Inverse folding.
């Protein structure tokens, strides 16, 4: 049996940004966020399961005033602790507090290399605060990865993005194509780059690596809609990662909550161990027994695991089908029709915050 | 591609990379932003010395004292592999 290596702790769905490519669910049930003692228990149980890394994410994790306490607890347990943030609220005081708590790494999102375009996509005037956040992080010598989500509107500015990341003193730059879940799926026609744009982007990345390769590591997350084979989503369902949603639901993938018929368990009712080993959700697509053709007999089934279950569900209505991104999938026309579409684009719909009850942290 | 590395270099874990312990096996693990590497005993013995103060020659010597069958080539190829993965910097000596 595989053991999970990474825990994605989604602390909240609240976020000060409104990025139209957000992969968080569009419809979030009215929820009460897990309180600090509940997260402490989740961390303890994750450690006992063998998890080595904790990614504190959301929404915007800085929206929780008890974040430093979580970081300290995670670090005490021996986890590598990564904060995934928009940077809004990460001023010098907060950065010092988190660094002292033992934070290992910060992944900071930047929307674009162009300030006006960046703020427009974020739906808020946050550029200066992000730059402040980057400087606060590097001033403390905390390792910094800058993450830019690529889409039709910014993909032509990879060169300036690389220059910006280098100027900010980042250790790594992650250029990640939009993954079409949640709000991003809703906005797909306006976000999806053309084939020509993707080719140009790959060229720009190769060029940037040749120039900056020694000082800045550049990661490029491919545009799966434009690839012949699907991504090895989450490195396999229920194989390496465990996601705990803000309300305590436990998922094999952040987008899995949308799959109809999955009986999703909650840390408020079961232990992580029970859920990882025995829940319907985690066992449903684990391994390769569930696979239909063309995956079942495919030599790539241990490479990409049939692709993404959530993508299969949202495009075909059946999570057990091959990922339509795969050129061998009988549903591949669903992807090629979208990639080749030349019709008018829908305007971008900004993400809006869910109606969430906030539970006050315990004192 | 072979990474250039000399016996006088003093390799160091790259910023953002640190060694930790696997809670299940007790083995040394190398932790970094997007992944982990679980190290065998000899690899762990080498990695623990990657703090910028030990030269490659030091590492070969001290690891060789404990593990008879570890050769210079083994240490070099491990270090080169970790440098190639961006987890270690050579630290020119």
């Amino acid at each position: 049996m595989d053991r999970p290596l990474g825990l994605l702790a989604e602390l909240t769905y609240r976020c000060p940004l409104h990025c139209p490519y957000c992969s968080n669910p569009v419809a979030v049930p009215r929820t009460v966020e897990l309180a600090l003692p509940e997260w402490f228990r989740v961390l303890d149980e994750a450690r006992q399961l063998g998890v080595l890394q904790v990614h504190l994410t959301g929404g915007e994790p800085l929206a929780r005033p008890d974040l430093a306490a979580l970081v300290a607890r995670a670090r005490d347990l021996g986890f590598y602790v990564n904060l995934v943030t928009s940077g809004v609220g990460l001023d010098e005081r907060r950065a010092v507090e988190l660094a002292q708590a033992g934070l290992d790494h910060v992944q900071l999102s930047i929307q674009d290399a162009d300030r006006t375009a960046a703020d427009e996509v974020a739906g808020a005037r946050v550029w200066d605060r992000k730059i402040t956040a980057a400087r606060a992080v590097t001033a403390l010598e905390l390792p910094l990865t800058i993450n830019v989500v690529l889409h039709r509107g910014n993909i032509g500015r990879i060169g300036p993005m690389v220059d910006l990341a280098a100027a900010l003193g980042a250790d790594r730059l992650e250029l990640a194509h939009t993954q079409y879940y949640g709000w991003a799926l809703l906005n797909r026609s306006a976000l999806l780059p053309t084939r020509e744009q993707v080719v140009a982007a790959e060229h720009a990345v190769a060029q940037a690596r040749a120039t900056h390769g020694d000082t800045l590591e550049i990661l490029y997350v491919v545009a799966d809609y434009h690839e012949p084979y699907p991504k090895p989503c989450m490195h396999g369902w229920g194989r390496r990662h465990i996601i705990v949603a803000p309300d305590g639901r436990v998922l094999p993938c952040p987008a899995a909550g949308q799959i109809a018929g999955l009986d999703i368990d909650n840390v408020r009712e079961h232990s992580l161990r029970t859920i990882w080993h025995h829940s319907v959700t985690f066992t449903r697509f684990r391994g390769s027994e569930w696979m239909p053709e063309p995956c079942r007999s495919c030599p790539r089934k241990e490479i990409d695991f049939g692709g993404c279950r959530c993508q299969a569900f949202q495009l075909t209505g059946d999570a057990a089908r091959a990922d339509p991104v795969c050129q061998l999938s009988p549903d591949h026309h669903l992807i090629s029709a979208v990639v080749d579409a030349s019709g008018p684009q829908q305007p971008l719909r900004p993400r809006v915050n869910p109606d969430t009850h906030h539970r006050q942290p315990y004192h | 591609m072979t990474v250039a590395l000399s016996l006088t270099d003093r390799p160091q874990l790259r910023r953002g990379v640190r060694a930790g312990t696997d809670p299940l096996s007790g083995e040394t693990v190398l932790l970094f932003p997007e992944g982990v590497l679980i190290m065998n005993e000899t690899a762990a013995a080498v990695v623990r010395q990657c703090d910028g103060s030990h030269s490659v020659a030091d590492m070969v010597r001290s690891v060789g004292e404990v593990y008879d069958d570890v050769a210079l080539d083994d240490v070099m190829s491990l270090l080169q592999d970790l440098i190639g993965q961006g987890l270690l910097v050579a630290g020119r000596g």
Summary: Confidence is low (pLDDT under 50) at residues 357-363 of chain A. The two ends of chain A are 39 Å apart (CA to CA). Chain A is about 35% helix and 10% strand.
